[in-house]
Write a structure and sequence with these properties.
Radius of gyration: 13 Å
Order of helices and strands: HHH
Shape: elongated
Length: about 55
């Protein structure tokens, strides 16, 4: 989903969604959704992430 779609669904401003997404990426050490998808694919769909791996 785009940040705009997320904002509409959660009934928040797009800028608030942008900020939350930026914070999530920062905590994961990522810059894009593609990196998040790659991490999830690598871990497997049934994996529970308690301490996600950080990019080196």
């Amino acid at each position: 989903m785009s940040n705009r779609d997320i904002a509409k669904r959660l009934v928040i401003s797009k800028r608030t969604a942008d900020t939350h997404i930026e914070n999530i990426f920062s905590k994961l050490g990522f810059n894009s959704r593609d990196q998040v998808v790659a991490m999830i694919t690598e871990l497997g769909k049934d994996a529970v992430v308690t301490d996600p791996p950080r990019r080196q």
